[in-house]
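BUG-250 | component: ligand-complex export | severity: low

The export step for 5-iodo-2'-deoxyuridine-5'-monophosphate jobs runs without errors, but we want the raw record kept on the ticket for reference. Input record follows.
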Amino acid sequence: APPEVKRVPLEQKQIQHPVGKRLVDIALKKKSNLIASADVITTAELLKLAEEVGDHVVALKLHTDIIKDFSMDFIENLKKIAKEKDFLLFEDRKFADIGNTQELQYKEGIYKIGSWADMITSHVIAGEESLKVFDNVGVVAIVEMSSKGTLTDDYYIGKALNVAESAPNVMGVVAQRKVSDDLLLFTPGVNISTSGDNKGQQYNTPERVMRGYHTDFMIVGRGIYQSANPKEVAQEYQSLGWAAYEASLS
Ligand code: 5IU
């Protein structure tokens, strides 16, 4: 059973990063700690999903490199929806190279992530200096993964957290447990209808991640975008997530 200890309310967190502050403001305004992962492969599906779930999420997480017909016009359209519905754009690029290569991957190529993303994910395996290249963005550092057999054991998590906590552009971490008081915590692997897939993913409920791990933001992919009614289901995750967050405060 999840530990019944109090957590620091979102509005009392000492958040340094401007993007972290924006995300928390949106969360408090919308009463949502939900990030939808839009792992669809066409821009039409993605824009439709953004319209449907936009009111219920604080951010939309993207893997732009899986989109068949990516273009900067698509990004312009997505930015309009994000502005209208008030959510951030979160590119889950999982950078994992030396600083110079990451800088090229972040700024150049087809996706030009640095020109539009509010937040990005990065591994910290290349060390603190490799993260310096991510400017004008909130970096979410991966310190632990959700999949079965991941190499992110306690030793790795401790070392990764040291890197994350010493890099000023890091606003949060991805983990499956409460790891830091200062950084925002993001937890993927959340689904209310299944416990995993046949490719190693492992799922928890919103209740488990909010009350057990004291995560700040839960990330839901297939649970929403593969459902028959993404808008309705996003609303359901939003209310489950927020209720579990409120329950963990008292
Ligand atoms: N994601 C994980 N686990 C992790 C990390 C990222 O699932 O440890 I780091 C991503 C992968 C996918 C989304 O884009 O979060 C989860 O999608 P599903 O809810 O469909 O499993």
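Assignee comment: Attached the raw record above. The first helix runs from residue 18 to 30.
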